[in-house]
Amino acid sequence: MMTKAALVVVDVQKDFCEGGALAAANTISLLEPLKKFIEEARRRGVLIVYTRDWHPEDHSSFKTKGGPWPVHCVGGQEGSELMPPLRADAQDLMIHKGVAVEGAGYSGFDETVLEPELRKKGIKQIGVAGIATEYCVRATALDAQKANFETTVLSDLIRAVRDKDVPKVIAEFGQAGIGIRDSAAWLAEVR
Questions:
Q1: Are 62 and 70 in contact, with CB atoms under 8 Å apart?
Q2: Residue of 15, 53, 73, 97 marked active site
Q3: Which of 82, 91, 93, 123 is placed for a possible disulfide with 86 were both Cys, Cβ 3.0 to 4.6 Å?
Q4: What whole-number percentage of the chain has pLDDT above 70?
Q5: How high is the pLDDT of residue 2?
């Protein structure tokens, strides 16, 4: 039985994990708990959505083009792949973002089909997990809330580039009306 809930797993890609071109902090500790949670959420009828940066080789965010970041997550290259042990199943939704040359593409909702796909499936609740708390997780959660989804950030299944920035982002989530819960508490509330 499908619920009216979706788990949006933001950018858990090789380039954003330890050893990658733009690694967040402490990502290896995220992988196994996130994999187990995805499996449990899927069993309970939650739609699993993966977002991936899928940049062109000349993306405006790259330092080589005057942007702030090293080259990362170029579409179709190894760094853009989901970080093992994560893998998408056939029924999961895969969203590529940041596909245009211009624009940061931080949010899973930014110039993608995510919102219409969620509406088509009757989704009301969204749990947000993944990388990086102060960038793509932040933007995706804020856009989900703006789109009037009941949005919760899963505090135990996110990782930041800089842990010192997390309290400010968590406060911003609270001000925006976004829930902050651990994954087990969120899953218990799924309808």
A1: yes
A2: 97
A3: 82
A4: 99
A5: 86
| CATH number, domain with residue 11 | 3.40.50.850
Instruction: Say if residues 158 and 130 touch (Cβ distance below 8 Å).
Output: yes
- Of the candidates 17, 53, 110, 136, the residue annotated as catalytic is 136
- 3-state SS record for the chain: CCCCEEEEEECCEHHHCCCCCCCCCCCHHHHHHHHHHHHHHHHCCCEEEEEEECECCCCCCEHHHCCCECCCCECCCHHHCECCCCCCCCCCEEEEECCCCCCCCCCCCCCCCHHHHHHHCCCCEEEEEEECHHHHHHHHHHHHHHCCCEEEEEEEEEECCCHHHHHHHHHHHHHCCCEEECHHHHHHHCC
pLDDT above 90 covers a percentage of the chain that reads 98
The residue annotated as part of the active site, out of 11, 53, 110, 143, is 11
Closest CA to 151 of 160, 139, 161: 139
Q: Is 11 annotated as catalytic?
A: yes
The yes-or-no verdict on residue 1 having pLDDT over 80 is no
Total structural domains within the chain: 1
Integer Cα distance of 117 and 81 in angstroms: 22
Give me the domain span that covers residue 34.
5-189
- Helices 166-175 and 138-146 pack at an angle, to 10 degrees, of 0
